[in-house]
Design goal:
Helix content: 40-55%
Shape: globular
CATH architecture of the largest domain: 3-Layer(aba) Sandwich
CATH superfamily of the largest domain: P-loop containing nucleotide triphosphate hydrolases
CATH class of the largest domain: Alpha Beta
Strand content: 5-15%
Distance between the termini: 13 Å
Structural class: alpha/beta
Oligomer: single chain
Radius of gyration: 18 Å
């Protein structure tokens, strides 16, 4: 089983690539964002400590954390944001390693794909067998983000300013996959990498 980390800048089409991988290969896909939600649900590894930090008034009636209230608290206080991240990131990584061990032991899939925004920042290069950078030409990215999310050029620029540069992604990843054109061309590139 190959464990492959997938990353890329906003608007690169990672979701569509993952959808195609799911359809065409014997694989499992882990979305780090989903794992982050899992570890902060009631009973999850981080739940109680997060509630201590943000208060019970941030909970929904069913005891789950209200994401909007949590976001308002952590993004208005950098110290709380730092503490929450220090809880969530290691818990996410632990859970991903558990999934990896479970899948390796079962031996039923050929590939385990991990999509994570902080793949390079959180040391997943030391866990995954290889990293892939999903690249898209800037003008294509802008068209996609305007069409799918209604983003302005200013919003796109501000998001990209907070992300790693294309050169940094290329340097850190074993493979760069160009997802600027039809998805069939992207999947041809992936087919060659996985053959």
């Amino acid at each position: 089983m190959r464990f492959i980390g997938i990353t890329g800048q906003v608007g690169s089409g990672k979701s569509e690539v993952l959808k195609q991988l799911q359809e065409k290969y014997n694989c499992r896909i882990i979305l780090a964002d989903n794992v982050a939600h899992e570890v902060r649900e009631p009973g999850g590894e981080c739940y109680e400590k997060i509630v201590e930090l943000i208060g019970t008034e941030s909970l929904n009636e069913d005891g789950t954390i209200n994401r909007q209230k949590m976001a308002a608290i952590i993004f208005s206080d950098k110290a709380v944001l730092k503490k929450v991240n220090e809880l969530i990131h290691p818990a996410v990584k632990n859970r991903i390693l558990e999934i990896y061990s479970e899948e390796k032991e079962k031996g039923e899939i050929d590939y385990l794909f991990l999509e994570a925004a902080l793949l390079l920042d959180d040391g997943y290069d030391r866990i995954c067998d290889e990293l892939w950078f999903i690249y898209v030409r800037d003008e294509v990215r802008r068209e996609r983000l305007k069409a799918s999310r209604g983003y302005s050029d200013e919003k796109i620029d501000s998001i990209l300013k907070g992300q790693r540069s294309e050169a940094q992604f290329r340097q850190a990843c074993k493979w760069t996959i160009d997802n600027s054109d039809e998805i069939e061309l992207t999947m041809e590139q992936i087919g060659l990498i996985l053959s």
